[in-house]
Amino acid sequence: MSTTQAPRKLRDAELTALKASSRLNEEEIQNLFEKFQEIDESGADKMNKEQVVKFYIEIGSDRGTDERIANNVFGIVDQDNDGLLNFSDFVLGTIFLRGASTEHEYSLMFDIIDVSGDKCISYDEMKKFMDKLTKLDASARGEDVSEVDLKKVTSDIFSQYGVKEDEKLSKEQFIEG
């Protein structure tokens, strides 16, 4: 007797985040989710980099998503470096492309930055994230990032939150800030 897993359904959190970070309505988001599942040849709710890039190019974005931007989004969201993204990861990538605006989106973004999973963001975690985000933003605008002082940018961010470089930023501080 074989057990077949029922296809995954679109999660409420994914729907809410996409509605808040895009101009898509619920039906369009459902269609997007179904398209993701079509491209996901394995049926495991995961896509490799090539599939994700193809998906981002196919759906486009307000910023004119191209292969370079899609590659950078993949690099930001694939924090565990397993070379695969699921639909929730795609939602996070979309938030990065469009910019977070709701508490829920900031919470999701915090979880991406907190690579260690200790519910706090260290200076190094923020610096690595800012490196990826700066590259994403620059590639979207066709600019060079070699002039960006990531140490200063990260120090300025921590300073704005009233956190020293040797301290950690809490989720509550991040969302409220």
Can you identify the CATH superfamily of the largest domain? EF-hand
Helix content: 55-70%
Mean pLDDT: 78
CATH topology of the largest domain: Recoverin, domain 1
State the name of the first-level CATH class of the largest domain. Mainly Alpha
- Estimated radius of gyration: 17 Å
**Which segments are poorly predicted (pLDDT under 50) over 5 or more consecutive residues?**
none
Distance, first to last CA = 54 Å
Give me the side-by-side strand order of the main sheet: 1-2
| Tally of distinct domains | 2
Order of helices and strands: HHEHHEHHEHHEH
Structural class: mainly alpha
Q: How is the biggest beta sheet arranged?
A: 2 strands, antiparallel
Number of helices: 9
The gross shape turns out to be globular
CATH architecture classification name of the largest domain: Orthogonal Bundle
Give the percentage of residues in beta strands.
Answer: under 5%
SSE diagram, text form:
Blueprint: H1 12-21, H2 26-39, E1 47-48, H3 49-59, H4 67-77, E2 84-85, H5 87-98, H6 103-113, E3 120-121, H7 123-141, H8 150-160, E4 169-170, H9 171-176
Antiparallel strand pairs: 1-2, 3-4
Family: Belongs to the recoverin family.
Domain EF-hand: 101-136
Keywords: Calcium, Lipoprotein, Metal-binding, Myristate, Repeat
